[in-house]
Specification:
single chain, about 280 residues, mainly alpha, three-stranded parallel β-sheet, two-stranded antiparallel ribbon, about 65% helix, disordered C terminus
């Protein structure tokens, strides 16, 4: 089975750019330029990527003390042409070294860098000075201390991780102890709950019987009292029909005389009529 490996492709934030200081005194121009170009491109780093700016800043001091081999000092000529007729300029190496020693190293390194935008950005990171002094001491000190800072940060991270692991282990131990204690308490409570009902059951039953024996007479008395009151409540119900009977008996007695009166009036009327009829006759 074929296994595919992923290519290393870092991001710009993963790149670390340091500051390198190189002394050109007594160095051969070509060998020194290759070293400077390697630092600018970043080929000395394991995270080198050709399409990214992964190199360092390079500071070159004592540029006037650079050397060349053989008869290059007399034969080497720097040419510059502006593409206009009659504008070709030729400067020998000795004159260039006397007037502009920085340009010698810059032009040698420029020919060894990529001929594109990335190469031009790399060349901007090259700082060449004719003497031993340069104004980039702060950056150089910072890059030198970077490794120590990273080592301190790693040590702090390791100590913090160890402390966190210890805290975690202690917390887990305490949690385990607490769980064991809670389980033991639960088991003890369960055993107590199982044992106590068996022991206290007779006493509870006796107390319940006593309570029921005490409560039953009171309940009977309260149940009998309403039975004694019921006849008293029924008496008025017996009297009411008697009153109704009396009233009903009296009403017809009052009506009888009225009937008699009517009968008398009728008899009187009949007698009067008879008497009237007899008188007329």
């Amino acid at each position: 089975m074929v296994t595919r490996l992923k290519h290393y492709n870092p991001s710009a934030r993963d790149m670390v750019n340091d500051w390198q200081v190189l002394d050109a005194s007594g160095q051969v121009l070509g060998r020194f330029a290759t070293q400077v170009a390697m630092f600018l491109m970043g080929k000395n780093k394991p995270e080198y990527v050709p399409h990214m700016l992964s190199g360092d800043f390079v500071v070159v001091i004592n540029a006037r003390e650079i050397k060349v081999t053989g008869r290059k000092a007399q034969q080497k000529i720097y040419k510059r042409y502006s593409q206009y007729p009659g504008t070709l300029k030729e400067i020998p190496y000795e004159r260039m070294q006397a007037r502009f020693p920085e340009r010698i190293i810059e032009m040698a390194v420029k020919g060894m860098l990529p001929k594109n935008k990335l190469g031009r950005r790399m060349l901007k990171r090259l700082k060449v000075y004719a003497g031993p002094e340069h104004p980039h001491s702060a950056q150089v000190i910072g890059s030198d201390r970077r490794e120590s800072r990273e080592a301190e940060a790693l040590a702090k991270a390791e100590t913090a991780a160890a402390a966190a692991a210890i805290k975690k282990a202690t917390a887990e131990k305490q949690a385990a102890k607490e769980t064991l204690a809670s389980e033991a308490r639960a088991e003890a409570a369960a055993t107590v709950a199982v044992e106590t009902p068996a022991r206290k059951a007779p006493a509870k039953k006796a107390a319940a019987k006593k309570a029921t024996a005490r409560k039953t007479p009171a309940k009977k008395a309260t149940a009998r009292k309403p039975a004694a009151k019921k006849p008293a409540a029924r008496k008025p119900a017996a009297k009411k029909p008697a009153v109704k009977k009396a009233t009903t008996a009296r009403k017809p007695a009052a009506r009888k005389p009225a009937a008699r009166k009517t009968r008398q009036t009728t008899t009187e009327k009949t007698t009067a009529r008879k008497s009237g009829d007899s008188g007329e006759k």
